[in-house]
C-alpha cells in the first residue's frame, strides 16, 4: 500500500515523546537503559544521556527498527503512562486506516484513460450473497431459466438459502458460533474483488467491523511473487503498511483483532501441500510465501486471527483440506433492483440509464446474464461511449452475440497470463464440451466428461466453468457447468465456426452444422434456437475479425456461404413461414448484422404476417433491419393485435420506408394506467417516405381518414382520450377529414 505522503512511524514516535513532560521523558530514558530490549541490544548510555527527543527517535529506529513502537508502548505502560501507550497505539491504527481509505477510495474501470477514476461508493452496489449450498435440482433450474424467471429464481434463493451481507459475514450462526474463516466464492466477473475493496474501505471509513477488527490486511494472490526469497508474515504486514517501522509486534499482540483477506485464491499458482517443517507458527519465521499462506490458512499461524478468502468455485476444493470449520458464502450477483441501481449510478442520467436498461430488458439472453456485474459494466461502458455522439445505441453491442463475445474477451484479457499459456486447442475443446452438452441436453458435467474432452487440466476450465460439490449418498461428488446455459450455447456455436485442422474434419463439421439447422426446425427442439442464432452472429465478418485479433483463433470460411445458402432455401419454402417461426428466422438474419443476408432473401417475403405476436422492442428492431435491407419497397406487414406502443414503433421506423401497407393495432396507457387499445390503423403509403413522426388521434372520432399526400390512414372505431402516437414519418403535415 502506498503511504501517500502521510505520517510515518517515526513521526508518531516523535509525537509520543513530545507529549511527555521533561520528568517523564527522563524516566523513559532511564527505563530504556534497563528494559529487556529486542535482541538484547540496549542503546549505550552515553548516546542517550543528552539526547533530544528527535535524537531519541533516531536511536530507537536505529537499534530496534520495526519493534521500536512496541518497545515504547511497553515502557510507557511500565512507568504508568497508560494513556500515552494507548494513544500511540491508536494513532498508528488511525494512520493505517487513513492510508487504506486513500488506497480504496477510488476505483478505475478496466478501460479507464490515464487520470480517470470513480469513487468506489459511487459504483458499488450490494450483491446478493447466500450462506447455504443449493441442491442439485435448484442449480439446474437456475442454469436454464432465462429473463425475468432467472431473476426471480435468484431472488427466491435469497430467502431460501439464508441471504447475508458484507456486514454479517462473521456474525454467529443459529448455534451462536462465529466463524474465524469465511470462504466467499463466485464465478469470474461476479464482483468478488469489488466486494473486498468495499469491505476494506468500509472498515477504514469507520463503517464496518469497528469493534471487531483493529487491523485488516488484503493479500492479493495475483500480486504475490512466489519466486522471491524467504519471507514471514511480519514482512507481509510491513509491506501492507508500507512502513518499515510499522509496530508489527503491537499489531500481532492481539491476533483475535486481525482480519487477513486472501483475495483471488484461485489465482495462486503454488500448491498448499506442505510437509514437515515447511509449516511455521512464528510470524517472524522466514519461510516461502507458500509456507506463510498455508500456515495461515491451516491456523498453525495466528490461530485466533480471522480469514476471509475469495475464490472461484473451481478452486474451492483445494481449500477443503486446509481450512478448519469455514463458513461458506456465495455471491449470486445483482438482484433486479441492484441491476437498475447500478445502471443509474453508472450513467448519472435517468434518460440514458433507462435507454440502456431497455436495451438489455428487450433481449432475453442478454437480460439473463446481467446478474453478472462485469456484463453490466461492459454494456454500460459501450453504451456511454455511443451516447456521447448519438441519441441511440449503435452497432457495438447491437446483437446478443456481440455482448457474449465482449464478455468472453474481457474475461480472457483479465486472465491474460493463463490464457497466453493455453493452447488454442483448449478453446476448441471447451467448445466441444459445450456442443456435446447442448445436443444431449446436458448442463451439468462429470469429471469423466472433462476427461473425454481433454479438459482435466485447463486454464479455460477454471475461467468459464463453474465447479460445484454436491452430496451423493454419504459421499460427495463434483459437477461442472457453464456460468449459465446461455454461455454453453454461445461456446457450442463457436465450435461450428472455429477452423478445423483438416479439410476432412471441416467437411464433417459442415455436415454437423447442416444437421443442427435441420434439428432446430423440428417441433420440440426449441433448446437449439439460441445456439443457431449464435452461429449466424459468429459468422459475421466483423465478429470473425474481432475473434481472430483478440483470441488469435482462426475461423472457418465455409460457414457464411453455407448459412447464406440455407437462408435462401428457407425463404423459398412453400407455404412461406409466418408468425413466431418467421420471426425466429428474421432473428438469425439480424444477428449477422450483414445486409447481404436480408438482401438475398427478403424479396421472397413481400407479405409478412406477424399478427397476434407479443413483439418486444428487439423484435421490432429485427424486423426493421430485415425490411431496411430488402431489395423491394412494397412490403405489406400485418402487425394487428401485437400490443405495440410508441417505442415499438420507433424501433420499427427504419424499415417502414420499404412498406406500402402497414396494419396496426396500437395500445397505450389510459389515465387509470390500464392498457387500452387504440382503433385499428391501416396505412397505405408510398415508397421512399422521408422519416418517422407523431400522429395525433382525436378524441370522440368514430372514424376518420387522414391524408398525408403520400398515402392515407384509415382510423376505425372511437377513442375517448387524446393520444400522441409515433407511427409514420417526421415533418409530415396531416389533413384530417371526418
Automatic annotation (TrEMBL):
GO terms for molecular function: ATP binding; hydrolase activity. PROSITE patterns: DAPIN, NACHT. InterPro entries: DAPIN (IPR004020), DEATH-like_dom_sf (IPR011029), NACHT-assoc (IPR029495), NACHT_NTPase (IPR007111), NLRP_HD2 (IPR041267), NLRP_innate_immun_reg (IPR050637), NOD1/2_WH (IPR041075), P-loop_NTPase (IPR027417). GO terms for cellular component: canonical inflammasome complex; endoplasmic reticulum; extracellular region; nucleus. Residues 180-384 form the NACHT domain. GO terms for biological process: inflammatory response; innate immune response. It is found in: Cytoplasm; Endomembrane system; Endoplasmic reticulum; Golgi apparatus. Its main location: cytoplasm. It holds the Pfam family NACHT. Keywords: ATP-binding, Cytoplasm, Endoplasmic reticulum, Golgi apparatus, Hydrolase, Immunity, Inflammatory response, Innate immunity, Lipoprotein, Membrane, Nucleotide-binding, Nucleus, Palmitate, Phosphoprotein, Repeat, Secreted, Transcription, Transcription regulation, Transmembrane, Transmembrane helix, Ubl conjugation. The chain crosses the membrane at residues 713-730. SUPFAM superfamilies: DEATH domain, P-loop containing nucleoside triphosphate hydrolases, RNI-like. Residues 1-94 form the Pyrin domain. This is NACHT domain-containing protein. It comes from Podarcis muralis (Wall lizard).
